[in-house]
Amino acid sequence: MTFSLALTDDHITLRDWAHEFAEKTIRPAAAEYDESEETPWPVLQEAAKAGLYGFEIMSNLREDETGQSFPILTEELFWGDGGIGLAIMGTGLAAAGIAAAGTLEQIIEWVPQCYGSADDVKVAGFCSSEPEAGSDVANMRTTAKYDEASDEWVISGQKAWVTNGGIADVLVVQAVVEPGLGSRGQAAFVLKSDTAGIASPKKLRKHGLHASNTADIFFDDVRVPGSALLGGKEKLDAKIARAKEGRKTGAQAAMATFETTRPTVGAMAIGVARAAYEYALDYAKDRVVFGKPIIENQAISFMLADMATEIDAARLLVRRAAWMGAAKQPFAAAEGSMSKLKAGRVAVWSTERAIQILGGVGYTREYPVERMHRDAKIFDIFEGTEQIQQLVIARAISGVRLT
């Protein structure tokens, strides 16, 4: 499959389907859930009934050999609203974690449980970041110790900023199983959130994405069966043995998950940026000052021209990275990180420009660009900060192990 920007008939159908749902179901609810900061369960249920949320659609999209389906779907949902978009797409990170590290049996057993059904919608959480580690997975402190007598793993530690934390039914947890090996001594586990010893006392109140639940999760000697280890113990033991011998061990579990989702996160950012651009463009055409629409002023029209250009450039990087991932092309220059870095910057900048074009009213909550600006900032932070993306890219292009 060669890289092409031409959308197939299936891509166009998916885009139009997602756009209609975003326009008719997500947007009318956006302000309400931004204000209440509650999980939009009714919208999730509508998405499940429509076929836009669930195991089946996610499996079908992953079979797209062009890699374009996920960015297309994600951009449209986040065009509807960033917070509700993440409430719909957030489970995908946990599902991707299972798919990246699990056996076929584990994938079949657990991924459907992440989503539930149209009549009983569930969400899942991916637990990687920690209060003292952040984006540096090599300094993870959550541990998983194997109890051979009972064939159980005992997990202890704290995970921070978990999307769907506190409301997830299924959790994918990264933990250290062999201290001293850094990221090579880590493994991933899948478990139910009601397992004894798990606590999530309160959700975090965030700057943006209010409709998406975020919380810290605490693990106090949480016992899970040996089967909870994604990939199985035989595979883990072989990996640890290679690491101790100084040989390559393959991709670290958390980073393998991020590699598959990074272009999709970039598409989220593009959706928010595009929504702000389109709103500002329409406003500039309608807003009359001194007898003419403000878009006739170069200062305004040039801002909009730059916004359109930057959004398109970011989308091209995302689409290329998504194709490379699907085609299993090596990210020799960290093209996945490039796409996420560019899209995040564009989202923050474009939403800020949209507020500027609207002027004083753009700074109020009476207009959606203020909410879009708050939602956009996260794309400079989560799944690797702007600076982490720069570090990854710099290492790739230089061949130097920068710190």
TrEMBL record:
The keyword Transport does not apply. Residues 126-222 form the Acyl-CoA oxidase/dehydrogenase middle domain. The keyword Oxidoreductase applies. This is Acyl-CoA dehydrogenase family protein. Belongs to the acyl-CoA dehydrogenase family. GO terms for molecular function: acyl-CoA dehydrogenase activity; flavin adenine dinucleotide binding. Pfam families: Acyl-CoA_dh_1, Acyl-CoA_dh_M, Acyl-CoA_dh_N. InterPro entries: Acyl-CoA_DH_CS, Acyl-CoA_Oxase/DH_mid-dom, Acyl-CoA_Oxase/DH_mid-dom_sf, AcylCo_DH-like_C, AcylCo_DH/oxidase_C, AcylCoA_DH/ox_N, AcylCoA_DH/ox_N_sf, AcylCoA_DH/oxidase_NM_dom_sf. Keywords: FAD, Flavoprotein, Oxidoreductase. Residues 8-114 form the Acyl-CoA dehydrogenase/oxidase N-terminal domain. Residues 249-397 form the Acyl-CoA dehydrogenase/oxidase C-terminal domain. The lineage of its organism: Bacteria, Bacillati, Actinomycetota, Actinomycetes, Mycobacteriales. Its cofactor is FAD.
